[in-house]
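Protocol step 4 of 6: structure prediction from sequence.
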Amino acid sequence: MKITQVEYQALYNLGDYNNERISLRANLEEGETAEDVVAQLREKAIALNTGSGGTADDLYSRIYRYKRDLGMLEEKIKTAAEQWNQTASFLKAQGLNPDAPTLEPFQSLLAPADEGVVEAELDDGCF
């Protein structure tokens, strides 16, 4: 069997069930092996991904880091609210401040994003 063409596809995870697929195809020239060309295509796909601002890997890393930081902040707020509630209970029990308010746990620190529909315009030659 003679291989005349090879293809390489890479699927980069963007997080939250989103991904980016890069597919490259090349014809084998005289003296090239399929293994060498696939390795070159793999390197080119990685360069395209990171060359476009590191779309997949960079975004995934930032999303992971932001989620981790948000979790740590929420934990700190929860701890501070518990400490305040204990202080408020003490103030009430001692009669120092019978109206000391308690803090309810925060459900979300950020307001929900506005949902909208984006209409895409496609050229006739897209598909």
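Step 5 (inspection) to follow. The chain is about 45% helix and 15% strand.
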